[in-house]
Specification:
This protein has 188 residues and is of the alpha+beta class. It folds into two domains: 31 residues; 144 residues, Immunoglobulin-like, CATH 2.60.40. It contains three helices and eight strands, in the order αααββββββββ. A hairpin with a 6-residue loop joins strand 1 and strand 2. The termini are far apart. Bound molecules: copper (II) ion (CU) and zinc ion. The site of copper (II) ion has 8 residues, from strand 4 and strand 7.
Length: 188
């Protein structure tokens, strides 16, 4: 009985030792599929925060010169709504505040999407038509899927009001009416 228990214990220790040396070996680390596969596309599915009925999707596709952003949102009041990437991929609080502030890896002031100096998460506004639907497409040069400016695992927030693109630190865009986490997408 004693030896039967002893052998699995030894093999467990050996296996643990092996995996540790594997993890520390840079060659083997590079072989891990998650770190080598080029990430081309991400998607965020937006869900309404408490008391709202906004829904939609935002896709991010790596293209020459940056990221192609395509947003389709419905259930909005007509007009402009602040639209940003926020720091945390955490939509757990009913009001969306768990997502934190604007994603700002460069420590820049809040600005407009076309500003040179801005938060990486500053996507400006989406504008809803009379039926409450908004569609937006643009090329963003400040976003990435790698390194400190990676948008993966962060969140997209839609606001009740227009982002004035001036007021610090968040454009005075009011409450958060939708939140979604940016995750990997299968592809086209
Ligand atoms: Cu925001
Ligand atoms: Zn901002």
């Amino acid at each position: 009985m004693k030896t039967k228990a002893f052998i699995p214990a030894i093999s467990l220790i050996l296996a643990m030792g092996f995996s540790t040396s594997f993890a520390q070996d840079p060659q083997h680390m590079n072989m891990a599929p998650a770190s080598t596969a080029a990430i081309e596309k991400a998607i965020c599915v937006l869900y309404a925060t408490q008391g709202n009925s906004v829904s939609g999707t935002v896709t991010f596709t790596k293209v020459t010169g940056g990221m192609k952003v395509v947003a389709d949102v419905s259930g909005l009041t007509p007009g402009k709504h602040g639209f940003h990437i926020h720091e945390f991929g955490d939509c757990s609080s009913p009001d969306g505040t768990s997502a934190g502030g604007h994603f700002n890896p460069s420590g820049s002031p809040h600005g407009a999407p076309m500003d040179m100096s801005r938060h990486a998460g500053d996507m400006g506004n989406i504008e809803a038509d009379a039926s409450g639907k908004a569609h937006m497409e643009y090329l963003d040069p400040h976003m990435s899927f790698n390194g400190p400016s990676s948008i993966l695992g962060r969140s997209v927030i839609v606001h009740a009001k227009e982002d004035d693109m001036k007021t610090q630190p968040s454009g005075n865009a009011g409450p958060r009416i939708a939140c979604g986490v940016i995750g990997l997408s299968k592809g086209q």
